[in-house]
From TrEMBL:
It comes from Paenibacillus phytohabitans. InterPro entries: FapA, FapA_b_solenoid, FapA_N. PANTHER family: POLYMERASE-RELATED (PTHR38032), RNA-BINDING PROTEIN KHPB N-TERMINAL DOMAIN-CONTAINING PROTEIN (PTHR38032:SF1). Pfam families: FapA, FapA_N. It comes from the Bacteria. Signal peptide: none annotated. This is DUF342 domain-containing protein. Residues 152-349 form the Flagellar Assembly Protein A N-terminal region domain.
Amino acid sequence: MLRIRVYGRQAANRDHVSHQSPGDPPGFMMLFSVRMPLIIRKSEVKIMPQQFIEPTRYDFVESLMLERTGFLDSFSVEGRTSGGMNGDKDGIILVQNNQIFITPPLSGGKPARISAVHPVVLKINWKTVTEPTEVTSADHITWEICEKPQYQITVSPDKLKVHFTLYRAEKYAWNLVNCPASFEAAVRAEPNRAMLLSTLTIEQILSSLDNRSILRNLNIPALYAELNNPTYLPVCIAEGRAPLPGKKSRLQLSLPEHTLTGNGMLQGGRTAEAADSLDFLRFPGAPFAREGEVFARKLPPEEGIPGFDVEGGILPPPPPQDIYFAAGDNARLLPNGEIAALRTGRPRICGDSGSVTTCDFPALCLITKEMAATAREIMFAGDIVVPSDIEGPMCIEALGNVYVYGNVCQSTITATGSIYISGQVTGCSLHTGLAGVHQHRLHRFSSLLLTEVGGLREAARLLAKNVESRQQSVKYGLVVMLLLEDKYSHIECLISDLKSALLCMEGTPQPGTDQLKQMLEVFTHPGQFTEFITDSVLNSFFRLLRNLCEDIELLQEEHVFINIARSHNSILESGGELILRDADAETV
C-alpha cells in the first residue's frame, strides 16, 4: 500500500480517505491523508487546521488532476503560479464548486495572493479587497455578489417626468468560476442560467415607489408593456404638467377706420394727386393718425396657468413681462391703456419685442419727379415718399417707411419700417423690418468696421506688450499705424464707405454722428495722429461704432409690410407680412 500526504478537498470530519481507481490491480489502494485548509463560501468562513505539504505538492496536484478523468476540465479560469526558487513553498489558492481553498505557505515561502473581478466583492478581515492581497488561513474572508439592479427609476431634473429603465427581468444565482491551484488567483463569478431565483413583477416595482403622488399618476400599461416586451430604454411612467406661461405686455395697433381706405389715390388703377404731403402717408392700410385719435392700445400682461410636478408640488408660471412705453412728445398714454396722437402723421412704434417700446412721428422726405429721374441714391432718417415711377437704377434707404406711387424698376429699397408701392416691381430688391436693418448701409458698414476695430485694438495691445517684454519702448500710435498699413490695411476701404454713407444721410443725424465723423478722419490719416492715438482712443472709436449699430437696430419696427401690386424677377425680404394686391401677381 502506498501512503501519500497531499492537499485536497474532503469532508471536515475525515482525516484519511482511501481510493481505488477502476484500472488499479486488486488490492492496490491509494490512501490520502488530509488536513483541511481554509474553506470559504458565500457569507461563510470556516477555519480548518493547518496542513503540512511536501515541497513537490505542485507537481503532485498537477499529476492528480491529469490522472482523474474530468477533474481538470472543471476549471475554466487559469491562475498564476509563483515564480522564483521558492515557488513550491508559497501558499496556494484553489477555487472549485463555489468554494475557495487556501493553503498557507511553508517555511521560506510567500502567502498566496487573491483578488476579485466584478461583480465579486471580496472582504479580508472586513475590508474590501481592491487589489491583489496576500491571504493566509488566519484571515477572515467573505465574498458576495454586487450586481447591477434589475431596473432603475429616475426623475427628470425639472420633476416633470419619471422614467423606468429595465436592465433585466430575470434574477439568477451566481457561481464562482473554478480556478486551479495557484499562487495568485482572481476570483470570478458567472450567473447560473439553470437556477432562476425570481422574475421581476409589477408588484415589486410598485412596492419600491413610496411616493403616493407618483403612484397616483403612474402609467401602469407602459410598465406592463416594457416588462412583457423589453426595449431596455427609458420609458416614461409618470408625467406632471408644465406651467403655461402668460402673455407679456404688448402694443396692439387699433387704427382708425379711415386708414383702410387711405387717401384714395389707388382708386381706378391710377395714382391721383395729393393736396398735402401728409396725404401721401395715407396709403390704404398703412398706419396714420390725426391729432387726438387713438391709434394703439397697451395691453396689460396676462398671468399664466400653474402646473404640477410628479411629486404633487405646484409649479408657478413665470411672471409675465411688462414693457415700458416711451410716448415722447407726439403721443400720450391714457389711463385706460389707449395711446392717442398729439399731432397728425404716421406713428412709428419701435422695440415692441423688447422691454422698452418707443413711439414717435418720423420726419418726411418728399422726392420730386425731377429728383426721382436723376438721383441714384437717397438715404433719409425718416419716411420717404416718391410720388412717381422709378425707372432705376436707384438705391433708396429709409430709417422708416418708403411710399412709392408708381412702378419701380431695377432698384433697391431698404426700410427699417414698411414699403408701400402702388404699382409693379421689376428686377428689384426690397427689404423691410429686421432685413432692412441689416441691409442698411450705415448698419452694414459700421458692423463690419466694428469687428475690424476690435481686432485692431487686440493686435495693437499684443504687439505693444511683446515690444515692452524686450525692455524696449514704442509709441502706441506707431503700432496702430503699422498695423493699419499691413495686416489691417483693408480698414481704410471700410472707413471710406462709412464716411460716404454718413454724407449721404439726410435728416436728423443719429446721436454721436459728429464725433464718429471726427474719429473716421483720424484713422483715415493715422500717421498724422500718432501722438493722439492711444488705447482709450481706439476704445472710444469702437464704442461710437457700436452705438451707431444699436441706434439703427432700435429703429426696427415690428408691424411691417411689403405691400405691392405685382412683382416680377425681384427679391422680396419682409420682416413681417407680404401683401400682393393683384390676384394674378407673380413673385420671383
